[in-house]
Inverse folding.
């Protein structure tokens, strides 16, 4: 298998901002018409590692019409920017840090992504079936 | 590496440069002092520096949604400040040619805040990008030269917009400036919706259309239109809704301000007398 799906989020809640849950629920409440209520705990998590300006794995196979949580570890000391025009995603990831990006539900197709800071090597794609 | 740096820095600078171009044109109209530009740029750069060195920590806030939430807050604030600015421009009529102190100060403060927020957002990305190459003997020179070129092109486009606006027939200048500001506000609010979708605070829905075959976002024209009017080849409903809301807010501020100015003039208070009262010192 090229990918692994972990049932539960492996990220521990951040200690830096203790009241983030409260703030979040307030915002969710205020914008409840627009915001997504669905519990995110059940969202499958897929991990991607950036190492030497390459994505591991560089190819992900995802099911169609499913929301996926991408957990990206940047194990390089330099920052990288995960970007995809097809997925409409763009996120800076500091060196030796991790980041979360939600993608989907997606229609079947190919969705390339790349590292904007090192685009020559940092290339990958998501294949949705 | 050189070309990549040119493109990346150009992308990041273009938005702020265009915004500065419009604000400068309005400022020239009002004969306002340009101190707001330097305050906005330097404050924004300083805050961007602290955001960049703490990016790892900031990103971990709100269950790893920190970066997006902060960006969305800054983008929404730009939209709100543009709305207030448009109210300010529209509600004083005739526009004081030599801007009075009070009016000029309020205008300058708003411009300063808008520029500061725009610079924080784009500046932190540029700083992080450049920081990655500082110890890289092989690439550092190319990256910094490329970034300089990208920055230069971005700034030139902003300056071009500034002179372009001032070269318009007088009757078109104000509508053109207001239209651009409305599009910027819509763009900012739409981008904040994208940020919140990325971290699942707003549910992802299927794109409303896909125009990438006609005009790709990563093409030169696509990038320019993205910075200028918020062009997106695969927008979602939340994006469109925010875009229209941002434009409507500015449009309402312009209409409301114009109506307010008319009422004031009917009551015999000319705009100049309102503002000049506060600046007698």
């Amino acid at each position: 298998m090229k990918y692994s799906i972990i049932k539960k989020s492996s990220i521990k809640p951040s200690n830096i901002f203790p009241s983030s849950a409260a703030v979040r629920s307030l915002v969710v409440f205020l914008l409840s018409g627009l915001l997504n209520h669905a519990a995110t705990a059940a969202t499958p998590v897929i991990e991607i590692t950036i190492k030497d300006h390459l994505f591991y794995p560089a190819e992900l196979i995802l099911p169609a019409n499913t929301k996926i949580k991408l957990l990206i570890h940047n194990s390089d000391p330099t920052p990288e920017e995960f970007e995809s025009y097809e997925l409409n995603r763009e996120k800076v990831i500091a060196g030796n840090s991790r980041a979360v990006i939600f993608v989907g539900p997606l229609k079947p197709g190919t969705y390339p992504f790349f590292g904007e800071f090192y685009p020559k090597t940092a290339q990958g794609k998501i294949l949705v079936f | 590496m050189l070309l990549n740096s040119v493109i990346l820095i150009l992308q990041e600078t273009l938005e702020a440069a265009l915004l500065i171009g419009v604000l400068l044109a309005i400022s020239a109209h009002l004969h306002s002092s340009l101190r707001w530009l330097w305050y906005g740029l330097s404050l924004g750069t300083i805050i961007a520096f602290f955001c960049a060195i703490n990016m790892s920590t900031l990103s971990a806030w709100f269950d790893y949604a920190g970066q997006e939430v902060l960006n969305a807050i800054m983008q929404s604030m730009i939209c709100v400040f543009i709305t207030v600015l448009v109210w300010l421009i529209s509600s004083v009529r005739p526009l004081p040619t030599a801007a009075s102190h009070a009016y000029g100060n309020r205008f300058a403060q708003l411009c300063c805040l808008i520029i500061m927020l725009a610079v924080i957002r784009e500046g932190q990305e540029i700083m992080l990008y450049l920081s990655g190459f500082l110890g890289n003997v092989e690439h550092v020179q190319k990256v910094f030269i490329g970034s300089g070129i990208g920055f230069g092109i971005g700034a030139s486009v902003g300056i071009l917009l500034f002179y372009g606006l001032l070269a318009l027939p007088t009757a078109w200048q104000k509508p053109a400036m207001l239209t651009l500001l409305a599009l910027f506000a819509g763009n900012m609010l739409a981008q904040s919706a994208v940020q919140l979708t990325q971290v699942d605070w707003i549910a992802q829905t299927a794109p409303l259309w896909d125009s990438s075959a006609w005009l790709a976002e990563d093409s030169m024209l696509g990038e320019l239109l993205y910075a200028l009017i918020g062009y997106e080849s695969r927008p979602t409903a939340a994006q469109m809704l925010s875009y229209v809301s941002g434009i409507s807010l500015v449009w309402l501020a312009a209409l409301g301000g114009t109506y307010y100015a008319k009422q004031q003039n009917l009551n015999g208070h000319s705009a100049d007398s309102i503002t000049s009262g506060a600046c007698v010192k």
Notes: The first strand of chain A starts at residue 45 and ends at 51.
